[in-house]
Amino acid sequence: MNKGDLINKIAEDANLTKAQATEALNVVMSSIQDTLKDGKKVTLVGFGTFSTSERAARDGRNPKTGEIIQIAAKTMVKFKPGKELAESVN
Fold first, then answer.
1. Looking at the DSSP assignment, which residues form a beta bridge with residue 71?
2. Distance of CA 4 to the CA centre of its chain
3. pLDDT per position as a tens digit, 33-83
4. Sign of the alpha-carbon dihedral angle for 27, 30, 32, 38
5. Is the pLDDT assigned to residue 21 strictly greater than 90?
6. Greatest CA separation for the chain
7. Do the beta carbons of residue 36 and residue 30 sit within 8 Å?
8. Cα of 60 vs its chain's centroid, Å
9. Closest CA to 27 of 16, 51, 82
């Protein structure tokens, strides 16, 4: 399922227009993104938790040349599925 398919499903199930469903999905995704940027968690009970973690700078190796390169530190986004979601797919 891609974003367009999800919008169509939301519009159909919630009896909304595609424009309303698009706006609703965009607001949810933007809110999650803004919260993660602030370094906070987003917990959707039964679905899962979005969080961030810091990955330290480290040395890597170019597989083609074998040259050692520096990989910059960065913030990673993590998702841990909730119990209900995990059980529903098994």
1. 58
2. 17
3. 999 999 999 999 999 999 999 999 999 999 999 999 999 999 999 999 999
4. negative
5. yes
6. 57
7. no
8. 26
9. 16
Give me the residues paired with residue 31 across strands: none
Structure tokens at 75: 């913030």
Q: What tokens appear for 30 in the block?
A: 């933007």
90 CB burial (10 A radius; 0-12, 13-18, 19+): exposed
Check residue 89 and report its DSSP letter.
T
Provide the residue count of the chain.
Answer: 90
pTM of this prediction?
0.79
Residue 20 and residue 26: Cα distance in Å, rounded? 10
Q: Is the pLDDT of residue 90 over 90?
A: no
Q: How many CA atoms lie within 13 A of 52 on its CB side?
A: 13
Residue in the block written with tokens 């891609």:
2
